[in-house]
Amino acid sequence: MNQLQTTDTQEKKLELEVKKFELEQRKAIAFVATDFFPSHLRSPNKDATIGTAIIVLDLAQRMNLGALEVAQSIYIVKGKPSFETKFLVARLNSSGLLKGRLNTILAPDGKSAYCEAIDAQTGQLLRGTKITMEMAKREGWIDKNGSKWQTMPELMIKYRAQSFL
C-alpha cells in the first residue's frame, strides 16, 4: 500500500468516527429531552448532561442492554459510575454463571447478612463477606446524609451483602 492509499483510508476512518460521534450526540440530546432520563443524571450544565447520556448510551451498547435500563440503574459516586445492587443481582442471576440464584441470608436479629451462590461451572459454594450493622456504622454508611440505613436497615444490609459477593 502506498502513502496516498494509507492517507485516504485514514481520512475515511476519521470521517466515519466523526459521523458516529455526531449521531451519538443527537441520540443523547433526544434522550435527555425525555422525562425518562433520570433526574439524578441531570446537571445544571446541559453539556454535562449530554455527556453523561453519551456515556450511558455507550455503556448500554457495550453491555447489550437498553439505554433506559442502564440510565435508571446507574449512579455516580465521586465521579465514577456505579450500579444499583438490585440491577447487578438481576444481571448475575440471569447470567448463567450461577446454579440457581444468589441467596441472601439475614441473621434472625437483622443485624448481619451475607450471600451465597453456587458456581455453575465448578459447583463450588461461593460465600460473600458478612456485613454487620457495626461495620456499617464504622464505615459511616449509617450516618451519611440522606442514608436509607436509618429508615430501612434490613434492606440496606441485604443490598450491601449482595454487593460484597
UniProtKB/TrEMBL annotation:
Tree of life domain: Bacteria
Q: List the protein's name.
A: Uncharacterized protein
Which organism encodes this protein? Campylobacter mucosalis CCUG 21559
Origin organism lineage: Bacteria, Pseudomonadati, Campylobacterota, Epsilonproteobacteria, Campylobacterales
